[in-house]
């Protein structure tokens, strides 16, 4: 019984949107389940997919909270 955990940030391309839609989550579940069927032969009815939405304040990049990392990227030249 495979269990797949997908972690996504609560940010989207639309600044007013904070979470994935039900349709997007359903597509992730279908896609992950189909991948396990295609690659490993795991049956769809035995595959569990968990989607965790991570708030921005709970993740980081480059050794910094993401808000600080983004702030610095806007200020410092690349």
UniProtKB/TrEMBL annotation:
Keywords on record: Isomerase
InterPro entries, A to Z: 4-OT, 4-OT-like_dom, Tautomerase/MIF_sf
Domain of life: Bacteria
Short name of one Pfam family: Tautomerase
GO molecular function: isomerase activity
Domain 4-oxalocrotonate tautomerase-like: 2-67
Keyword Isomerase annotated: yes
Keyword Secreted part of the UniProt annotation: no
Catalytic center residues: 2 (proton acceptor)
Top EC class of this enzyme: isomerase
EC number: 5.3.2.-
PANTHER family: 2-HYDROXYMUCONATE TAUTOMERASE (PTHR35530:SF1), TAUTOMERASE-RELATED (PTHR35530)
UniProt similarity note: Belongs to the 4-oxalocrotonate tautomerase family.
Protein name: Tautomerase
Organism: Methylobacterium soli
